[in-house]
């Protein structure tokens, strides 16, 4: 055996230089775990992002530009009764109406409370008997008889598409 034939056999015998079946590359790619993991992750992220939608809150009845409007989003009765909102927003007050957007809200049942904090002290001012001095409102424009309404009265269904809720402040 000559040196040339030895190296030729070694070179031609290398797996890259052997003839391949047309489907071998496809089968090798298909058996790889990386594309499947990437596909699964992409599907999961797409499903999660498709579920969440924007919730726009339209607040009406604002009579002055003083202060700011505070809005709280509640995901269930427990967070509503403990005054621990799932999300909150505040924006400068404008005469007549204000829009607030909560982004990527997962589908489910929610309730909203809002008030016009005229003096910007970050709380709803009340009289000595507990009646609100500043304009306030709830989703579904619900009103309580003696105190705030129940979560059931203010709750509404949020779906995956963007939607709007209107609240009249009184």
Describe what this molecule looks like in 3D.
The structure is a single chain. The strands form two sheets. Strands 2, 3, 5, 6 and 7 form a five-stranded antiparallel beta sheet that branches. The chain has a three-stranded mixed beta sheet with strand order 4-1-8. The radius of gyration is 31 Å and the shape is elongated. It has two domains: 21-51; 53-168, Sandwich (Immunoglobulin-like), CATH 2.60.40. The chain is built from five helices and eight strands, in the order αααββαββββαββ. It has 170 residues and is an alpha+beta fold.
Can you give keywords for this protein?
alpha+beta, three-stranded mixed sheet, 5 helices, 8 strands, 27% helix, 32% strand
List the helices and strands and how they pair.
Blueprint: H1 3-12, H2 24-31, H3 33-51, E1 53-62, E2 68-74, H4 77-81, E3 87-92, E4 96-105, E5 108-117, E6 136-138, H5 151-154, E7 156-158, E8 163-168
Parallel strand pairs: 1-8
Antiparallel strand pairs: 1-4, 2-3, 2-5, 5-6, 5-7
Outline:
This protein is α+β, with helices and mostly antiparallel strands and 170 residues long. The chain has helices spanning 3-12, 24-31, 33-51, 77-81, 151-154, and strands spanning 53-62, 68-74, 87-92, 96-105, 108-117, 136-138, 156-158, 163-168.
- The helix-and-strand class reads alpha+beta
The helix fraction, in percent, is 25-40%
Regarding CATH, which class of the largest domain?
Answer: Mainly Beta
Order of helices and strands: HHHEEHEEEEHEE
User: Segments where pLDDT lies below 50 for 5+ residues?
Assistant: none
Strand content: 25-35%
Radius of gyration, in Å, reads: 31 Å
Tally of distinct domains: 2
| Total beta-strand segments | 8
The average pLDDT score comes to 84
Q: What is the CATH fold-level name of the largest domain?
A: Immunoglobulin-like
Under the CATH scheme, which architecture of the largest domain would be assigned?
Sandwich
| Separate helix tally | 5
Largest sheet: 5 strands, antiparallel
| Overall 3D shape | elongated
